[in-house]
Amino acid sequence: MTDTPSLPDGYELSTDPDRLDVDRVHRWLSGDAYWALGRAREKQERAIAGSLNFGVYEVVSGEQVAYARVITDMATFAWLCDVYVDPSVRGKNVGTAMVAAMREHLRPYGLRRILLATLDAHGVYEKLGFRKLAQPDIWMALEFE
Fold first, then answer.
1. Number of Cβ within a 10 Å radius of residue 27
2. Residue 54, beta-bridge partner list
């Protein structure tokens, strides 16, 4: 079993989509996340609507400081994506704790796997139990863009 880090004091996690600061999430992703640069607001709204969303918020101000979303059937498979932590709280364990909370939120559903793609955060995810694909040669992708 891997560690389950907790959020630092003063922060809370929520899966309530009504709490999301959609303007902020869109600004973060479309303007600063290499995988979503230029993403249209309407596309981001559709992505949020079709996903299980995780937000981390400052308790006192209610300001959102991190975001992640999961596409899942809640039975066999999940895809973790759009993980973003505001630069002002990076290095405080917010992102790691958010992903750990996501993992524990999904654990009771008995999923076979949770996948993700990253160019630069392998070490972060490895601490939470993610590993490189054991058989990458059997995976395929259909890409439209």
1. 13
2. 68
Task: Give yes or no for a contact between 8 and 100, defined as CB atoms under 8 angstroms apart.
Answer: no
Q: Please state, in angstroms and rounded to a whole number, the distance separating the CA atoms of residues 72 and 33.
A: 22
- 32 vs 136: CA distance, rounded Å: 29
Q: What are 54-93's pLDDT values in tens digits?
A: 999 999 999 999 999 999 999 999 999 999 999 999 999 9
Rg (CA), the chain: 15
Helix (H, G, I), strand (E, B) or coil at 26: helix
From the list 21, 40, 43, 20, the residue with the least C-alpha distance to 30 is 40
- What is the dihedral sign for C-alpha 115, 48, 121, 59? negative
pTM here?
0.94
CB contact at 8 A, 37 and 68: no
AA identity, residue 47: A
DSSP 3-state percent helix, strand, coil across the chain (nearest 5): 35, 20, 45
